[in-house]
Specification:
about 250 residues; globular
Amino acid sequence: MNTWISALRSERIKLGRSQILLLAVFAPLISMLIGFLANLDSAGSEAEAWEGLLLAMSMLHAMFFLPMMTGIFSAFVCRYEHAGGGWKQILSLPVSRSALYMAKLLTVAGALALSQLLFSVGLLIVGAVKGFDLGSVPWDVLSARLIGGFVACLPLAALQLFVSTMWSSFAAPLVLNMIFTVPNILIANSATFGPYYPWVQPLLAMLPSGGGYDFGAFSLPFENLMITVGGSFVLFLAAGLIYFVRKPV
């Protein structure tokens, strides 16, 4: 257990000393700006107004920011090891490879959780400024979608970390991630492929039901999406962990 904690602390320190963690703050700020500009006058009840605000703020955040941040954080936690023979140094330490790999994954997940937490706070701030009743917040819907958006990032984090440990280039995984992120809105329209596409799963998880999004993969029940997300996470985590444990130094 001590080796796991040490590995996690080391990864947290490396991430904390960089400026890359500012992305976790930048994305919610942009989403807040979108929320302030959103016209929600046609919303019915207060609960519907909150869901409409979540919809407006989630589109760019879940469709673009979350997948991109997942790829950036995953590539960054492997950057030091790829530079100057870092893998040989760190793998020579008395830390198991599985503990090191999981520490990197947990660090990525922690950065994404921070961003999602700030997004949640930003949502409440925007709603309060717009005059929405804080007593009418539909906590069941908002909490499910906000937590679901974070959980839906985990398969992509596991996949991106797998790719980042394989490729020594810092830019290559980021370019690959961007290429697969761009067609998100098109793939989300497909009920056949959308639910299984890791880059679009955060968008599907965060958008509240209704609001005109009842077609393609958007019509997939939330519970079914979470089952798909869980299966994808286990698959990508197992593949990445097996590769890393057997990775030649």
